[in-house]
Amino acid sequence: MTRFDVDVVVVGAGFAGLYSAYKARTEGWSVVGIEAAPEVGGTWFWNRYPGARCDVESLDYSYSFDEELQREWRWSERYATQPEILSYIKHVADRFDLRRHFRFETRVTQARFDDDASRWVVRTDAGQEYRARFLLLATGSLSAPKVPDIAGFEDFAGEVYMTSSWPQTDPDVSGKRVGVIGTGSSGIQVIPVLAAQAEHLTVFQRSPNFSVPAFNRELDDEEWEQALAAYPERRRTSWAGGAGSPHTSHPGDPLTMTDEERREVLEEFWQRGGVLFGKTFANQTIDPRINEFARQFAEERIREIVQDPAVADDLVPTDHPIGTKRICTDSGYFETFNRDDVTLVNLRKDPIDTITPWGIKTDQGSHELDVLVLATGFDAMTGALTRIDIEGPRGHRIADAWSGGPLTYLGMAIPGFPNMFSLSGAGSPSVLANMVLTGEQQVNWLVDLIHHCDEHGHTQVEARLDAAEAWGSHVDEVASKTLFVGANSWYMGANVEGKARGFMPYLGGFATYGALCDEARDEGYAGFVLG
Ligand code: FAD
């Protein structure tokens, strides 16, 4: 077995992992990154299905740490496509010469803490062993795909593709009968594109979702020049904002507005597009009355677009307040259901009975398919970590430690696992904020922590159990005051059978979270045992 000794092992080469490697090297630490994919990019390497785009504007969904990088990369659209985001990440890897730190096509299978040597011993499926002072798990919150457990799945004789691991060569579905299972963000993005290519598209929907048009557009030169001039202020407001982007809610109180005033505001925010509609009013995901204004407005838009009222009935979500599952951002999603060559199957009324070699049999019918596309989501926030066999010095295993739900201190450190940190994961703003900035903020904070350890001669740093419990209670308490906890969402772990239920990301806001992390640092890292 090949063995290597380094300061830092980083797992994952997405936005967070690349920045971790960059910072570690800048600080003069030896670093090795390990990535299962053959290339950098993380989410944007794997999710290359047609129609994939970011739903945070490109200007914001990009690194902020290097002024020149920010100025030299020219985004072509308001919401970049997957190929453009992947090109950007590759550009960053080349520009800062980061690829040389990574071992690609290599999966971390095991990590054990050697207490005597204060080293993580990290093993890979390629038979290598890395010993590291610090282990940074940049393994992603939406990177452990969930395959549905449907009877007969193995028997299907046609082509099967998952949106979360789409083939590098785009499959040609023209002239084919295509079925899509899943209508979350990925399903909603891929469905209009597949509908335009396939002979017939059948959409199998269990949970309808709210989706708002992206109103995407090209960024012309004039707009780009203006954006560049405004960038410093845009970033400043993003860092000070609730979700790592420069957008804020309408300042007015919808409860005291007239119907007309409220509709004007809702229309204005609708036109901003996508997830930004979720921000229309400050208390939209807290006060059910305010939520209802936005929900009704969205329902009316769906019913305006979808011509067949029975299909519209099936597409209107009725089981969760708007915004408590991520609002999807689409380009012609609801319009797709007006096509003659598209069929919607509402699995709540007509559940899947079995998958057969030639298609899908539901309670009420048979759907012959040549291609099956699974847009069935992820074991979100915890799946990538618990799929690694991680063992701390006192025999704690991560899968057991988190069997009742993830417990972290400040969303990064886990009691029982010294010198190991998770990035963009449970207990942090994570998927509720612009994740590029979240990654930068956490890595910067961890760099300070490692310096603190080195300066004070500490070889081990471990989150205190009471500090993690207090943080967990805070995360729960903030969530419990919102409508989020009433939805069966992947934020709650509800999409994975047997997974513990609890609201996983931190809802207190991006800037507030950063301030709390800084406070913990300024108070001498009292939430940690340092030894
Ligand atoms: P990832 O990009 O997920 O990278 C993690 C990497 O770790 C992966 O490459 C994976 O292969 C690797 N890995 C995991 N386990 C192992 C292991 N055991 N061994 C080796 N390698 C491993 N967020 C936004 O803020 N805005 C958006 O618009 C947005 N759009 C999205 C669209 C889609 C389709 C998806 C799926 C997610 C989207 N997200 C968005 C969330 C997105 O995941 C993050 O923004 C961001 O890309 C996460 O970066 P990361 O580095 O934390 O993780």
Task: Write a structural description.
The chain is of the alpha/beta class and 531 residues long. Helix content is 32%, strand content 19%. The chain has 15 helices and 21 strands. It has helices at residues 15-26, 43-46, 67-72, 82-95, 185-197, 221-239, 259-272, 288-305, 309-315, 333-336, 383-386, 398-401, 435-455, 465-480, 510-522, and strands at residues 2-11, 31-34, 102-103, 108-114, 119-124, 128-137, 159-162, 177-181, 200-205, 211-213, 328-330, 342-346, 352-356, 359-362, 365-368, 371-374, 389-391, 413-414, 417-422, 461-463, 528-530. The strands form 5 sheets. Strands 1, 2, 3, 4, 5, 6, 17, 18 and 19 form a 9-stranded mixed sheet that branches. Strands 7-16-8-9-12 form a 5-stranded parallel sheet, covered by helices on one side. Strand 8, helix 5 (185-197) and strand 9 (200-205) form a beta-alpha-beta unit.
